[in-house]
Design a protein that fits this description.
There is one protein chain. The protein is mainly α. Helix content is about 50%, strand content about 0%. It has 15 helices and four strands. It has a two-stranded antiparallel ribbon. A two-stranded parallel sheet has the order 2-3. The longest helix has 23 residues. It is globular. The N terminus is likely disordered.
């Protein structure tokens, strides 16, 4: 796939407050044909290409800004120690998470001012909503792939204004996104966040999706580590530090009980695919079908000038929405057709 380089926006650019546009099911069609969808899909696929056959421990360019983001993620992760979960039993998540989210909202502007050069502080009006929406919903005390999408949209916006470029893409995945996964998994564990929009056993994962897509790209040309390796606890533990796909499987093994094929049948079924290349391409199709086409996932997504709701001007993404109706994935011919 062609790598697209974005030109920095002019200094006189007018930023706007992002707002929700997807309010009912018919809006999904407009979303799938929007400039925002095109830019996000292009960005997601560019990041995928940037980590092909790369391990987390590999040496690659990490800019000062990328490192500042990692440092900021470390800082907000530490708030968990200052905002412990409430000791009283609670049915759906721990309400202390609302205090954590409230602190995030209060500090989001300052965090951005530490990350961005002064001339781009005026972009905070567009950037902050994506960042704040990346870690879960304080009222519902949940987290899901829609929040993950919000974080990637935040990175995409930074890419749009020229803060990042093609040379940063590997670090955005293997440093920034890997750290983000560490933070949100900590929140899930400590505050017992409910899965937002989960399909239960019929979903790929209760919380994440892109860790599998980009994680499979890391393994694309691997021959020694085959897809069935995820069924071996020893293999998972051995490679979890280097490959996101395996770290995601390890996390599932830690938080779920029972046989893997029972609590994660989709991942179990995918393990029978012949190679990582097919898994990688199949997961992109599944991401569109199971996340981006789903109203419950994208109904809270916001649109601004960086990710506009207007029709795409020149779309040339790999995945073209053939239908706006997303159909559930099951361990049937549909799953095998995708892969």
């Amino acid at each position: 796939m062609e790598i697209i380089n974005y030109e920095p926006l002019p200094q006189g650019y007018i930023f706007i407050q992002p707002r929700k546009e997807i309010t009912e099911q018919p809006d999904i069609k407009t979303w799938l044909e929007s400039e925002a969808f095109f830019r996000l899909m292009t960005f997601i696929q560019n990041l995928n290409q940037s980590v092909v056959n790369k391990k987390i421990s590999d040496k690659f360019f990490v800019s000062e800004t990328a490192q500042k983001i990692v440092d900021s993620l470390n800082s907000i992760s530490a708030w968990v120690d200052e905002i412990p979960p409430l000791p009283t039993p609670q049915r759906f998540g721990n309400k202390a998470f609302r205090d954590w989210i409230a602190r995030l909202e209060q500090n989001a502007k300052t965090i951005h001012e530490k990350i961005l050069p002064p001339e781009w502080h005026k972009a905070n009006i567009e950037l902050v909503p994506y960042f704040v929406g990346s870690f879960g919903h304080g009222t519902r005390i949940d987290y899901g792939s829609g929040h993950e999408l919000s974080f990637v949209a935040w990175l995409c916006c930074l890419n749009e204004i020229g803060i990042f470029g093609q040379m940063d893409h590997t670090a955005l995945v293997l440093r920034v996104f890997v750290k983000y996964l560490e933070v949100v998994r900590g929140l899930q564990r400590v505050y017992l966040l409910e899965p937002a929009g989960s399909h239960g056993v019929w979903g790929l994962d209760d919380y994440q999706f892109l860790s599998y897509y980009w994680g499979s790209a890391q393994l694309r040309d691997q021959r020694r580590i085959n897809p069935k390796s995820i069924l071996s606890e020893d293999m998972v533990n051995t490679y979890a530090e280097e490959y996101m796909y395996f770290s995601s499987i390890k996390y599932i093994n830690e938080v779920k009980k029972g046989p893997f094929h029972e609590h994660s049948p989709i991942l179990y079924d995918i393990s029978s695919v012949i190679n990582w290349t097919k898994i990688n391409s199949g997961l992109l199709k599944m991401y569109v079908d199971e996340a981006l086409k789903k109203f419950p996932v994208v109904q809270h997504f916001v649109f601004g000038s960086f990710l506009p709701y207007r029709p795409a001007q020149n779309p040339h993404i790999i995945i073209t929405p053939e239908s706006t109706e997303a159909t559930p994935t099951r361990i049937t011919a549909k799953t095998r057709e995708i892969f």
